[in-house]
């Protein structure tokens, strides 16, 4: 989830010293670097880890698959209520009869909420439709009063979103993810460790397949954390151990460090290229547009800051798409990107407007049925001209 909450950044900064959340336990950078989740092993990676660490994941996948198979990656971006686009696109793609089974599905922010359903296939399309068209703002967050703003670390309370995740992510879904993980498929979600200011990639299938008694709770926590816009939504505290110390990491929106996850940065610059990833097809669904639309900005502080940050995020997403596109070209990987079409110019009155999401979902369905994929941003941006 992205941009809309950035209008609240000055307020979040001003109130940061007033929060009365649980006291943070001091720890050293080394303890933070080596922190472990009690009861788990190999379920997460720093997003800026070395290529060797990610290649180890690839080797394990290939061993589980048992035979050489063409790898297909689906990356789902952030975008707040614009996630309705990906939900609709996936449904339309299923209806076309051309949607493949993905080897790897990754999600960031609102894309993280979509990712488990996309990973499990078209039988979960109806669940996605309900998730993005049957809800409103009140099903996502509650605005705090003045007292809450002065004593809490966010503008809103995400208890409704946590409950929505719990309703849709249950033991049955967890078991299904674990079964697919055992076949060598991977479901990945990115959060941002705010203390370290680094992205964290979570292997959700490894969590689901573990024997840890809190695996369902952790699975839900990671999804909520990835969608928790700093300032608008409270961060998610995840308990870890570092040496002999116990403390809680503070995790927020994965989009704070990456708009989407197609390839970790170390693999993008790895000279082994496709040999290091084994990916033959990459699909990126951007829940938004690669460039901000023109808008005359009013001369007030919040609008100027919000527009500037939106511009930065869009530019970062564009650079990320171009980097993955270049990698694919260099290594002979089939690359495809899609995003909200230029013909969709519907307005929304409030964030998570049910009418807006329903209309955007329908737009996504039509784009998915038409398989509106583009092999490059240049070709995509020529659409409709």
TrEMBL record:
<feature type="active site" description="Proton acceptor">
    <location>
        <position position="253"/>
    </location>
</feature>
<dbReference type="InterPro" id="IPR016035">
    <property type="entry name" value="Acyl_Trfase/lysoPLipase"/>
</dbReference>
<feature type="domain" description="PNPLA">
    <location>
        <begin position="74"/>
        <end position="269"/>
    </location>
</feature>
<feature type="short sequence motif" description="DGA/G">
    <location>
        <begin position="253"/>
        <end position="255"/>
    </location>
</feature>
<keyword id="KW-0378">Hydrolase</keyword>
<dbReference type="Pfam" id="PF01734">
    <property type="entry name" value="Patatin"/>
</dbReference>
<keyword id="KW-0732">Signal</keyword>
<keyword id="KW-0442">Lipid degradation</keyword>
<feature type="short sequence motif" description="GXSXG">
    <location>
        <begin position="107"/>
        <end position="111"/>
    </location>
</feature>
<feature type="active site" description="Nucleophile">
    <location>
        <position position="109"/>
    </location>
</feature>
<protein>
    <submittedName>
        <fullName>Patatin-like phospholipase family protein</fullName>
    </submittedName>
</protein>
<feature type="signal peptide">
    <location>
        <begin position="1"/>
        <end position="19"/>
    </location>
</feature>
<keyword id="KW-0443">Lipid metabolism</keyword>
<dbReference type="InterPro" id="IPR002641">
    <property type="entry name" value="PNPLA_dom"/>
</dbReference>
